[in-house]
Design goal:
By secondary structure, this protein is α+β, with helices and mostly antiparallel strands. It is built from 6 helices and 3 strands; from the N terminus they run E-E-E-H-H-H-H-H-H. The protein has a 3-stranded antiparallel sheet, covered by helices on one side. Helix 2 packs across helix 4.
Length: 179
């Protein structure tokens, strides 16, 4: 499985692909600890296109990705990840919203588990999930990265300094996002 490292405002991202599509996009805190994969030489078409689209996203010129995706997961997880991709750029949703979207309104906890196992961060926008009352909730890449992505998408400006988010308690940030 080819792997490439991508320098981003969040730090070095790790991207993985197979012949079917992009299988992983990991933030620095979630990068695979060990991988049997090799660094892809220039010319892997899926990874090259993913980097091109990330360049556009971080330049403020892309709000939606159009890449072949091949995340590995259960059928339930893939349904959740597909629903996450319907959350528009600059908007947020709750676990309840996603549970309803997949036709299983009582699956909030399972949706949260699937969201946490999303292997393709940013492109499958799990960072757009906030608590029902607008509070920041867990993010595998760290709450500061989540907050930076949400601010970027809401304002078009990359934050230079972030307040320290309080896990599960930052209702003021959710209210700021909804303004």
């Amino acid at each position: 499985m080819p792997v490439i490292r991508y320098p981003s405002p969040l730090g070095m991202l790790t991207l993985e692909a197979d012949t079917n599509g992009l299988t992983g996009l990991y933030l620095p805190r979630r990068a695979p600890s060990s991988s049997a994969a090799s660094i892809a030489p220039d010319g892997d078409p899926i990874l090259d296109e993913a980097c091109r689209q990330l360049d556009q996203y971080f330049a403020g010129k892309r709000q939606a990705f159009s890449l072949p995706l091949a995340p590995h997961g259960t059928s339930f997880q893939r349904r959740v990840w597909a629903a996450l991709q319907t959350i528009p750029y600059g908007h947020t949703a709750s676990y309840q919203t996603i549970s309803n979207a997949i036709g299983n309104p009582k699956a909030n906890q399972a949706v949260g588990g699937a969201n946490g196992k999303n292997p393709i961060s940013i492109i499958i926008p799990c960072h757009r999930i906030i608590g029902r009352q607008g509070q920041l909730i867990g993010y595998g890449g760290g709450l500061a990265a989540k907050q930076a992505l949400l601010i970027w998408e809401a304002t078009g400006e990359w934050p230079t300094k972030l307040p320290s988010p309080q896990s599960g308690k930052d209702k003021a940030f959710g209210a700021w996002l909804r303004r």
